[in-house]
Amino acid sequence: MHHENITVEFFIVGFSNIPNGQFPLFLFFLLVYILTVLGNLVLIVLISSSSLLNTPMYFFLHNLSSLDIVYTSVTCPKLIQISVTNNGIMSFSQCMVQLSFFVVFWNTEYFLLTVMAYDRYVAICKPLHYTMIMNRRLCIMAAAGTWIGGMLGSLTPTVSTAMVTYRAFNILNHFYCDIKALETLAIGNASYIQNAILVHGLLCVTTSFICILVSYCYIITTILKIRSREGKYKAFSTCASHLSMVSMFYILLFDLYFRPKSTVSLSEGKVLTVLYVYIIPLLNPVVYSFRNREVKEARRKIIRNVVHK
């Protein structure tokens, strides 16, 4: 293979093309990373410590928070280091490892969002059977399935990207080893990567999106049948947070990876990637939970117990 006879390296450009912007960017990404980790850790502790949050919805939120921490950690520490040292050199193996973990966690994210959409569908459309359907065994199997699916779904794009030939030294105009950016550096036929993105998009991303769309069609239809205005508001409020974050996630995803390549500039692509790689995991604990009545009550209860001790 191409990396047996020569040493392949990539230079990650990051945002080094922004004049006098390295220190502000370092502070920005450091702050985003710290807040993302702390916010999701707080949510994990709250869910683990409170009996009020012992429900399927918060079980999946616990998984989502854990996922967001590792998902962000795959790329953000390296970006912070690049912003400080301007040393974006990565070996071929380091780049492929980063890409592999990123795609695994990326896949797991939208599989988990799909499971959470099904949970909201059962809660609103089949409320009398909710506890029976969403039992602990099903929740554990569904959560495990998202992680296993994330690993299996990553094989095609990562293996295809590793099979392509690259030059000894490559300037990668991105802030991590992004599959679309790597495609532009491939020597000769890059159809392996193009076909992998297409297959992955159809089998994983599009399928998950359709499942979420169908779930919310049933949810909205059920909500519209509720006669009281208060009942409609209460039902919609249980899925509004999930719907808003899912919409943001998929709009950015489709805009970045499935829009014609000629219509997306490299700079625009990096900004869009920052939004869905860093800003969405930062907002998840806030949008999903910190404004939620049950979470507020659990937080107050834990603080009271700590103060009284």
Description:
The protein is mainly alpha-helical. It has one domain: Rhopdopsin 7-helix transmembrane proteins (Up-down Bundle). It has twelve helices and three strands. The radius of gyration is 21 Å and the shape is globular.
Topology of this protein?
Elements: H1 2-5, E1 9-12, H2 22-49, H3 56-73, H4 76-85, E2 89-91, H5 92-125, H6 130-133, H7 136-163, E3 169-172, H8 179-183, H9 191-225, H10 229-257, H11 266-290, H12 293-308
Helix pairs in contact: 2-3, 2-4, 2-11, 3-5, 3-11, 5-7, 5-9, 5-10, 7-9, 9-10, 10-11
- Count the beta strands: 3
CATH topology: Rhopdopsin 7-helix transmembrane proteins
The named CATH superfamily: Rhodopsin 7-helix transmembrane proteins
Largest sheet: 3 strands, mixed
Identify low-pLDDT runs: 1-5
CATH architecture: Up-down Bundle
Number of domains: 1
- Cα distance spanning the termini: 63 Å
Element string (H = helix, E = strand)? HEHHHEHHHEHHHHH
Overall geometric form: globular
Tally of helical runs: 12
CATH class: Mainly Alpha
Give a short synopsis of this structure.
With about 300 residues, the chain is mainly alpha-helical. It is about 75% helix and about 5% strand.
Features:
single chain; 309 residues; mainly alpha; Rhopdopsin 7-helix transmembrane proteins; three-stranded mixed β-sheet; 12 helices; 3 strands; disordered N terminus
